[in-house]
Design goal:
The chain is of the alpha+beta class. It contains 8 helices and 18 strands.
Length: 329
C-alpha cells in the first residue's frame, strides 16, 4: 500500500435498489490498522456499504479503492478482504481445525503451512485444545472465536464484521468486545464493524461513522461524537439525551445535570419533582418533572441510600451553561 494512502477509500458511492437509494453519495476513508464502526438503525445502509467494500454488491455510481487500487469491478475472492458473518456460518461436519483452515485449503496452501497457521489462530483466539471438536460441541462464544480465527487465517488487510456479537448475551458480549480489540492490536488488521448498538461501537471503535437513510451524518472518535453530535439525530441516537426546545434547541446529557434536595430554587436552578427512578448498578437514572411540565432524564452516581432521591421528592435542578449542546437540525 502506498504511504499516505488510506486502506479503504469510498468516492461518492451510491447503491440503489429499485427507486430506493440504500447508499447515497458516500465518501469516506478507513485507515490501515484501525477499528472503524458503521453505526445506525436498521435500514440506514450500513450493511449495504459493507457489502460494497467486500464486493458482494456493485455501486451504481462512485468508486471503491482498497490500498490505493480501484477495486470497484473486482470480485470478492480477489479482494484483500475477508468477512465474518453474524451467523458465523461454520461447517457443522468439520472440526474446529478444519473450519479455520478451510480457506487456506481452498487456495491450495501447503499442508504444513495450513497446520502452522491453524495452530497460530487457535492460540490467538484462546481455543488451544479444542481443535478436534465440532461446532455443536462449542458454546456461542467459542463459535464466535472460531469464525474470527477462520476469517483471519488468510491474513486479510481488512476484516469486515457484520453484527459480530449480536448472538451473545450481555456479559459475554462485553468480554468479547475487549478480546476482539486485543486480537486486532496483535495482528494490526483493520476491522470494519457493522452494528446498530451504539455502546458496542463506542467500546470497540477508534472512529465511528453514524449513518441515516443511506447518508453519513457524522464521522469521528466516539468521545467527540458523544460530546459534540453534529445533528439532532446523532444526539438522540448516541447515548441518553435530553432535548430542550426553544428559540434554538439544545441537547443536554443526563450526567451533566445536578440535583439537590429542596424547592424554591435560587439563581438559575429549576424546581422539579422526582417522577420515577431506576437503579442501574453504578448509577441511578431519575425522571424529573419540572414545573414547566418538561421531564428530564438525570443520571447520578450510586453512592448509597444517603444520596438517593425517592419518588415524589422535591429537588432543585441545575444545568451548567457549558452542558448545553447546540443542535443544528
Amino acid at each position: 500500500m502506498t504511504q499516505g494512502v488510506p486502506l479503504v477509500r469510498l468516492d461518492r458511492v451510491t447503491k440503489r435498489f429499485g427507486e430506493v437509494s440504500a447508499v447515497h453519495e458516500v465518501s469516506l476513508d478507513i485507515e490501515a490498522g484501525e477499528i472503524f464502526a458503521l453505526l445506525g438503525p436498521s435500514g440506514c445502509g450500513k450493511t449495504t456499504l459493507m457489502r460494497l467494500i467486500a464486493g458482494f454488491e456493485q455501486p451504481d455510481e462512485g468508486r471503491v479503492f482498497i490500498g490505493g487500487v480501484d477495486m470497484t469491478d473486482v470480485p470478492p475472492h480477489k479482494r484483500p478482504v475477508n468477512m465474518m458473518f453474524q451467523s458465523y456460518a461454520l461447517f457443522p461436519h468439520m472440526s474446529v481445525e478444519k473450519n479455520i483452515g478451510f480457506g487456506l485449503q481452498q487456495e491450495g496452501a501447503p499442508r504444513a503451512e495450513i497446520t502452522e497457521r491453524v495452530a497460530e489462530m487457535l492460540r490467538l483466539v484462546q481455543l488451544e485444545g479444542l481443535g478436534k471438536r465440532r461446532p455443536a460441541q462449542l458454546s456461542g462464544g467459542q463459535k464466535q472465536r472460531v469464525a474470527l480465527a477462520r476469517a483471519l487465517a488468510k491474513r486479510p488487510k481488512l476484516l469486515l464484521l457484520d453484527e459480530p456479537l449480536a448472538a451473545l448475551d450481555r456479559k459475554l458480549r462485553e468480554q468479547t468486545q475487549f478480546e476482539l480489540k486485543e486480537v486486532q492490536r496483535k495482528l494490526g488488521t483493520a476491522f470494519v464493524v457493522v452494528t446498530h448498538d451504539q455502546e458496542e461501537a463506542s467500546v470497540m471503535a477508534s472512529r465511528i461513522a453514524v449513518m441515516r437513510a443511506g447518508k453519513l451524518e457524522q464521522i469521528g472518535p466516539p468521545a467527540e461524537i458523544y460530546a459534540r453530535p453534529a445533528s439532532r439525530f446523532v444526539a438522540e441516537f448516541i447515548g441518553d439525551i435530553n432535548i430542550l426546545e426553544g428559540d434554538a434547541a439544545t441537547a443536554v446529557r443526563p450526567e451533566r445535570i445536578r440535583l439537590e434536595r429542596g424547592a424554591d430554587s435560587p439563581g438559575n436552578a429549576l424546581d422539579g419533582i422526582v417522577d420515577d427512578l431506576a437503579f442501574r448498578g453504578s448509577d441511578i437514572l431519575y425522571r424529573v418533572r419540572l414545573a414547566t411540565g418538561t421531564t428530564l432524564r438525570v443520571v447520578t452516581p450510586n453512592s448509597g441510600d444517603r444520596n438517593t432521591y425517592r419518588r415524589g421528592d422535591k429537588v432543585r435542578v441545575e444545568i451548567p451553561p457549558d452542558a448545553h449542546i447546540p443542535l443544528e437540525h
